[in-house]
Fold this sequence. Notes:
By secondary structure, the protein is an alpha/beta fold. Helix content is about 35%, strand content about 20%. The protein starts with a strand and ends with a helix.
Amino acid sequence: MKIMQVNVKVGRVDKDATDVLVLLQCEGAGLSQDDAAPIDHALGGALTELLKSKEFEGKAAETALVHTHRKISAKRVLLVGLGKTTSVGLDTIRQALGYAVKRVRQAKAATFTVTVPAIVPKGASPSDVAQAMVEGAVLGSYQFNDYRSERGAGHDVDSMTLSARDKAELRDLSEGVRRGTATAEATIFVRDLCNHPSNVMTPARIAQEAKAIAKDTGVTLKILEQKDMEKLGMGALLGVARGSHEPPKFIILEYRGARKKDDRPVVLVGKTVTFDTGGISLKPAENMEHMKADMTGGAEVLAAMRAAARLKLPLNLVSILPTTENMPGGRAMKPGDIVTTLSGKTVEVQNTDAEGRLILADALAYAARYKPAALIDIATLTGACVVALGQFAVGMFGTDDTLKESVRKAGVRAGERVWEMPLWDEYFEQLKSDVADMRNIGGRGGGMITAALFLSKFAGDWPWVHLDIASTDWSERERAYLPKGPTGIGTRLLIQYLMDRTQ
């Protein structure tokens, strides 16, 4: 989709000839004296009347649209609620802009100006606020119409302008816009990849997308084909790929942005199953179409690489995508088969639908060769994650407290929160096999934990975090800045972690 243009300027909002002027208001705080009060005066008290009648109270997610009848330069004024002053955070602002852009689009407006709220959440900077505003607006405007016969059916909002109070704010706000645009574009890129059907978004197409990123940003790209994986001994990934007519790809992107070129890199690994039928352990037909998004983790590490290169972050970064389909067929891997992984460890495959951990086992072992300063894998790994956490938290496991805390803080700032789960060795009892080093499932109890523990055996001794996004990667309904369908949650978390690491 076309990305909304974002500008920053200083000036009187009552003189701004925009289609919609958006004013952010807190509940019970009255009209802001900096922006809303002068507009209210020009409109003859129309905004005050809305407050008195309680048609608009400033509650979170509340909106009210007022036509100005040419009393000011803007054609309309849109009030958007932030909720109580004491509860305003970065995600409150992000959500408010998501609701705002939807209402602007509903009004068939092409442009809007929004005043930067005077309230700055605790611990946040004006740059953080601007970043959140851009993310909310750009992500809230998302539409995917590539396969509709009438492509122009959905109205697009062309541009947004952030109105600053004085010139001293411009530098910080512009930096926030730069970061917010990069993170929002990355998330939209992920949503698009996940929305494409699997007959389009094949392993070969993922490789094409990686090539385009390498060409655009100058990062180094290496793609291992099936014969290369066979030479290396990636038996787990190759086992998953056996049932598909689509050849697997093992994609490695490298970005060298650190001041010291030999600095140990951050390595991101993403599960990239472009369609998951479950293999011989076939999934139920209901909702199987969602499995086109089983490559969300890979799409997100691809997007994080692009964003890091475009932002010119001063660090070294590697993104690894083990890419395949998981299909049934005459050559498909069967329950009871034993595969030898890149690490040399053997795995008894008791369920072919637990394929994500198999391809990640080889990818993590390969990632360890980089001697990473931090190793993070992200995957739509387990249905157990959905059962445990619902749809509002990403499951997090890890072996390094400092890395886990950094990821947790990045999640809070990005509005993509994580919740740590235990990674105790006692759970490995459930993964013991009678015929191999381990098996790939551990039974119903603690399914998310045993999956993460399985992965931990391939990450080496490097600082490692595993993010299970099966709970958050798909939304059954539209929310503030989240669409129905693929959400891209995890993308901004990764990018925020990378940005935080360089500050």
